[in-house]
Amino acid sequence: MNPTKPKLRFCIRGPFRVLDDDGRDLTPAGRKAQAVLALLSTSETLGRTRIWLQDKLWSDRGPEQGSGSLRQCLSEIRRCLGDHRAVLGASRNTVWLERDRVDIDMTENGIDPGAELFEGLDIRDPEFDLWLVSLRAHSQVSRTVGPTSRVTPGRTSRGAERLRQIVMNLQSDGSGEIGFLEEIVAEAVSRNLREQADFDIHTRVPAATHPDALVLEVQGFSPAGAGYAVRAALQTVADGRVLWSDIHSVSVLPTFETTPAEILSFSSIISNRIMNAFLLDRVTNGFDPDANVLALLAMQKVFLLRAEEAEKAEKAERMLTAAFENTQRGVYKAWLAQLNTIAFVEGFKPRSEMADAAEEAVAAALALEGENSQVLTVAANCAMVFDRDPQMAGHLARMAVRANPANAMAWWVLGHIQLYDGRYEDSYRTSARGRALAQGTFLQYWLDFQMSFAASFCGKLDEARILGQAASVMRPEFRAAHRFSLALNAASGDVDRAAVALRKLRKLEAGFAPSRFVEDADYPVSLIRATPFYEPRALMDLEANF
Question: What gap in Å lies between CA 379 and CA 450, rounded to an integer?
């Protein structure tokens, strides 16, 4: 036996196998045991912490159960390795492979070098699945990785990245008012897409098209010569299947200086449909998510936090970190900063920890993409949440709106700042503008909720009640909307509606009581306390009666 040759060979391309020098298969039969070896063999150091391994393989279990399951897997691995059991090392906190006793081999004889990594290794844990698809999509490795090299997700080159390919098909000849209308819609959609992810956008079908490419048809017309309208249709290149279509009327044509709000709103809806189409295709049909998908999925987690908020926030943070490691875009850092603001507001983590992390992320985002309206929007929000600086926050928010007037979140942040600055009528109008842009997106309920506050400060209590209720219906576990409904209905004497909100909050928050509005200074209802309708005694009476 050659003493310099590694004792065990890990074949990770194609079906995963562990072979000794004589070619005997020592692979553990258990899927979780195989997954442990997969996670170790792709580490830069060939080691992982026990907590990290538990999180990837038993993310739905408690710490004690996950720890016990990991111990069982390590015992199974050692039994299968037999005389080579010393290859696997473990301490109280860490598990590792002995570097000088393994060879990570991607080119086992008889295996197609194009086969995927760890083929068929199905664990059915979302955290492991996310790790594995990221590894497969972004690892750039040689055919054989020696004992000092590792297979790790890293930043891909733009050529290797699987860009989302969009073909903008404008139906007119490009001349006249109709042609200009189509071009304005297409440009607004392109700007929205480029700001949030990397899209490969064409105005004609390229010679080489991706099988998952989409065509966006934009058709402007004047029905019976009365006014104008725009039709948009999204379809696949491969088979021409129509995924979505819609028509919006246009009362005022765009000019070189201004684009009507209704066109911006329609472009926002189109952009959202495109991003959702790619997400659905990649996730449900088994395509490997790249940095774009990781970031877009994380964005939805950020804005759709529900009962298990803290856990989802941590997962979103990992997804955004992975997205930035793969492709260093400022917008990914910006979403990390936004996640930190939500973690602070909802009380997941202390202000000191979140403020420093948000400031660092915003600085990195601005350095990379200082003209991106999404980046400017998050920078404005962080300046308001952590620094309480409405002047600087307002300046950044106005920059964001100018950079992309179709960005619903930019209008939301501007309205939020105006609300805290006491400019209630301005906030109401700004929030209405953002709400029109957010229709059909995961931001819609946020704009409904903000506009309910603005309406209440402007004395429009019936509208405030309807908008607040709409936000709670769209997101039943959105606690802030139920808090608003509870306080408003209690103050107005609508005990039945207030009781409904109270029951929902008690389900969502263990030990909730209306007295927290009055007695708990840290409870996140400072804006409700500032509203003209806030009535502490009504809340205390509600607690006494229910």
Answer: 19
Q: Which tens digits make up the pLDDT trace of 142-199?
A: 333 333 334 433 333 333 344 578 889 898 877 788 999 999 999 999 999 888 877 8
427/450 Cα distance (integer angstroms): 9
Annotate 228-239 with b (16+ C-beta within 10 A) or e (fewer): bebebbbbbbee
- For the chain, the residue count is 546
Q: Is the pTM of this model over 0.70?
A: no
Instruction: Please report, as a single letter, which amino acid is at residue 28.
Output: P
Report the C-alpha gap between 518 and 39 in whole angstroms.
50
Q: Coil, strand or helix: which one is 217?
A: strand
3-state secondary structure of 242: strand
- 289 contacts 137 by C-beta, under 8 angstroms: yes
Pairing of strands 17-20, 8-11: antiparallel
Residues 6 or more apart whose Cβ sits within 8 Å of residue 97:
37, 40, 41, 46, 47, 87, 88, 89
CA distances from 483 to 343, 473, 503 (A): 18, 13, 11
Question: Among 91-95, 179-183, 232-236, where is mean pLDDT lowest?
Answer: 91-95
For residue 531, give the DSSP letter.
Answer: S
CB neighbours of residue 423 within 10 Å = 18
Amino acid letter for position 535: E
Residue 439 exposed, middle or buried by CB count within 10 Å (0-12, 13-18, 19+): middle
DSSP 243-291: EEEEEEEESS---SS---HHHHHHHHHHHHHHHHHHHHHHHHTT----H
d(CA 492, CA 469): 15
Q: What is the residue type of 137?
A: A
Q: Which residues contact 473 (CB under 8 A, 6 or more apart)?
A: none
CA–CA distance, 62 with 435 (Å, rounded to integer): 40
Question: What dihedral do alpha carbons 364, 365, 370, 371 form, nearest 10°?
Answer: 170
With b meaning 16 or more CB within 10 Å and e meaning fewer, what string describes 154-187? eebeeeebbbbbbbbbbebeeeeebebbbbbbbe
Residue 156 · residue 326 · CB < 8 Å? yes
Q: Give the tens place of pLDDT for each residue, 308-322.
A: 455 666 766 777 777
Strand ranges in 98-209 using DSSP code E only, listed in sequence order: 102-105, 164-170, 199-202
CA distance 452 to 469: 9
Compute the distance between CA of residue 218 and CA of residue 42 in angstroms, rounded to an integer.
46
Distance separating alpha carbons of residues 383 and 373, to the nearest angstrom: 15
How far is it, in rounded angstroms, from Cα 126 to Cα 460? Answer: 45
Quote the CA–CA distance of 358 and 295 in Å, as a whole number. 17
Q: How far apart are CA 263 and CA 184, in angstroms?
A: 8
